[in-house]
Amino acid sequence: MKPFKNLLASFRSLRQLTNHGRRSRRRQSLTISVAAECLEIRKLLAAADTTLPSFSNAQLNGKNPGNSSQVSLGQTLSFAGSVSDNVALAKLTVNISGPKGNDLTVVTSTVSGTSRSLSSYSINTSNTSYAGVAGNYTATFFAKDTSNNVSSKTWNFSVVVPDTHPFQGL
Questions:
Q1: Closest to 157 in 3D by CA, of 118, 121, 117, 125
Q2: Residues 27 and 111 in one domain
Q3: Pick from 120, 117, 157: nearest CA to 137
Q4: What is the Cα–Cα distance from 39 to 67, expressed in whole angstroms?
Q5: By the number of CB atoms within 10 A of the CB, which of 57, 60, 81, 121 ranks highest?
Q6: What does pTM read for this prediction?
């Protein structure tokens, strides 16, 4: 951000000198300064962040991404592991697709820093806004960094209604 501030200050000084019709060494010096700041900005833009956020040991309810599992209606499924980025994380989102619809948002959080634990995120299978019924579900955890690079991990699970027969076990 500093090169942009320096460039703006140099342009303001140059404009003031030009508006007063002065030709001086100060104007030549500012012209060189503006050129140097433009070069610095070009270097910053060329070094844009293209590295995706990275998940480490990501799990949902003790299962690795890509593994299917069966859970009971009413169960809360907890995430574990972490996500990190080489520059800075910006947003973490959990979406779910299932009988209630596709790509429904379970939770989204604006974050900062280079690393975040996934342990504060979970899916409540009894939440009627995105689940609450038996069926097959796909949950996706998205991580976006400040350069809009996005990576994700996906899990599949089936929600079943627990057997609550009153004579069970007799």
A1: 125
A2: no
A3: 157
A4: 49
A5: 60
A6: 0.71
Counted domains in the chain: 2
| Joined tokens for residue 29 | 């010096």
Distance between CA atoms of residues 61 and 75, nearest Å: 10
Q: What is the CATH classification number for the domain harbouring 86?
A: 2.60.40.2550
> How many helices (DSSP H) and strands (DSSP E) are in the chain?
2, 9
Q: In this structure, are 40 and 111 located in the same domain?
A: no
Reading the block at residue 146, the tokens are 């400040």
Residue 167 lies in a domain: no
Residues 121 and 69 in one domain: yes
pLDDT of 22: 54
Note whether 27 and 18 are within 8 A (CB). Answer: yes
pLDDT in the model for residue 66: 93
Predicted pLDDT of residue 163: 80
Asked whether residue 36 falls in the same domain as residue 120, the answer is no
Q: Are residues 64 and 6 in the same domain?
A: no
What is the secondary structure of 152-169 as a DSSP string? EEEEEEEEE-----TTTT
Q: Where are the beta strands (DSSP E) in the chain?
A: 54-60, 68-72, 76-84, 89-98, 101-110, 115-117, 122-124, 135-145, 150-160
